[in-house]
Amino acid sequence: AASSAALLRRLALAAAARESRAMSVGASVSAAVSSATRRRFSVYAASNMHAGKKLGKPNLAAPALPEQDVPKMNIYAMKGDQWFVIYTRDGRPYYYNPGQGITQWAHPKTGAVAPPTKPTFERPPNPIILNTVRLFGGTFCVGWAFLLFGGSPIVAHLVSDRVAVVEKKSV
Q1: Nearest CA to 85 among 99, 97, 71, 100?
Q2: CA dihedral 58, 60, 63, 65 (to 10 degrees)
Q3: What are phi and psi for residue 76, nearest 5 degrees?
Q4: In whole angstroms, what is the distance from residue 33 CA to residue 52 CA?
Q5: Which of the two residues, 53 and 32, has the higher pLDDT score?
Q6: Long-range Cβ pairs for the range 163-167 (8 Å, 24+)
Q7: What is the pLDDT of residues 114-165, one digit of tens each?
Q8: Quick count: other Cβ atoms within 10 Å of Cβ 72?
Q9: Does the model's pTM come out above 0.90?
Q10: Mean predicted confidence (pLDDT) in 75-101
Q11: First and final CA of the chain: distance in angstroms?
Q12: What distance in Å separates the CA atoms of residue 136 and residue 58, rounded to the nearest whole number?
């Protein structure tokens, strides 16, 4: 009976300490209010939020992956040198010397450069857009050049029925 009384006393002290911590954080609920009658703050009233409750961090995506999930680079030390061989995602090797701070594609001893594993892909231009730009751009440029170099009198002469040059009659 003595141990159960001591246990009840410790539980009561722990509950009082919890309530005093809630009050020190700025809780507006009085210390006499029990946890069963606390207000619930939720749209659906299914939350067990109460004033003074400590909030944990949200379960968002971590800014960094756990170490076991981080993809590792294949780095190999070359024998007898300070050079390291590192392979790209495509499997092409490049060479790094941390002592000199040099990074290069060429092998440090032989000078051989491994070609890219995939050729660089150059997509041809869209023929519909290319032909449309050629048609309208070319027509615009030819029209402006025609007018710039004196084509407007020729057009006026072809369009009108009258002769463009008027002669004065002498009286």
Answers
A1: 97
A2: 120
A3: -125, 135
A4: 13
A5: 53
A6: none
A7: 888 776 677 888 999 999 999 999 999 998 888 888 777 777 777 776 655 6
A8: 6
A9: no
A10: 85
A11: 147
A12: 57
